[in-house]
Amino acid sequence: MATRVLPLDLQFQGHADSIACYLLPHHHGAALVECGAGATLPALTAALAAHGYALTDITHVFLTHIHLDHAGAAGFMARQGAQVFVHPVGAPHLLNPEKLIASATRIYGDRMQTLWGDFLSVPQEKLMILQDAEQVDVGDFRLTAFHTPGHAEHHIAYQLDDLCFTGDVGGVRISSYSYLRLPFVPPELNLEKWRATIERLQTLNICRVAPTHFGIFDDADWHFSAILRALDAVNAWLESAMLADPPVEELRAQFLAWMEVQADEMALPADVRQAYLLANPLGMSADGMYRYWKKFRENR
Ligand SMILES: [Zn+2]
């Protein structure tokens, strides 16, 4: 029988369809893929309760990466008893999150606590490191972890049967539209690695994708090829936008305008646009592209 996968809406900032995590029940509790941030723990607790689970029933938390919206609550979950699984490069930041918190605080300033809440460290004995293609058996199902750089160096996508939990490297796709956006956050964005990651995922017999933002889609072929098209489109856009060597503020404004045009073309309603902006702030994407360009492309 196919493993049950239940999407939970973490109601980020009181809005639906922005940040998900996925509940995978087994015989003696349940596993989670992602756990959201400290600030979304009340919503996580309520969503688990609606399915008959307490926080202490969670045995495993599989993180795609350590950005706050995916992993902020991992330390708390570990203290409730869960084992936390992460990429080797992400692990030190969960043991000692001070640097991660400091760099996020530089970005979010005094909104840090309201947006994300507390980021507790994960105790060493609860932290499990996953190598590329490593498999983990949970109850009667098995997850395979693939190292999938592009959005972040330490990113993992998990395969469960024909379903792939794509974290952020699988893009942001809200609601039932055939439309997605790619979260180009600094400092590790790499368009070439992102492309290679998607080409690898395309070889894995995946029929369904479950991005953290947001939900399960059963058209993996369309989804992956749309990501490759988006990577090409952004690459062309960036090459042309950077010809004039604009300051980052101007790149931000141009990128916002381009995304507005796309949203208009897709006739996205206001609530869906809002969910996109909450899940994937566009200013940050522009900063990520700018940094990537300066680091890898400018003097090539
Ligand atoms: Zn991320």
Q: What does this protein look like?
A:
With 300 residues, the chain is of the alpha/beta class. The chain has two domains: 6-228, Ribonuclease Z/Hydroxyacylglutathione hydrolase-like (Metallo-beta-lactamase, Chain A); 234-297, no CATH class. The protein has helices at 41-50, 68-71, 74-79, 91-95, 98-108, 112-116, 191-201, 220-241, 248-265, 270-279, 282-297, and strands spanning 6-9, 20-26, 29-33, 58-62, 83-86, 127-129, 134-138, 141-147, 156-160, 163-167, 208-211. Strands 1-2-3-4-5-6 form a six-stranded mixed sheet. Strands 7-8-9-10-11 form a five-stranded mixed sheet, with no helix packed on it. Strand 2 (20-26) and strand 3 form a beta hairpin. Helix 7 runs antiparallel to helix 8 (220-241) and helix 9 (248-265) crosses helix 11 (282-297). The N and C termini lie far apart (51 Å). The model has no long low-confidence stretch (mean pLDDT 96). Bound molecules: zinc ion. Residues 65, 67, 151-152, 168, 183, 185 line the site of zinc ion.
The computed structural class is: alpha/beta
Mean pLDDT: 96
How many independent structural domains?
Answer: 2
**Percentage of residues in strands:** 15-25%
> What's the SSE pattern?
EEEHEHHEHHHEEEEEHEHHHH
Major beta-sheet overview: 6 strands, mixed
CATH class of the largest domain: Alpha Beta
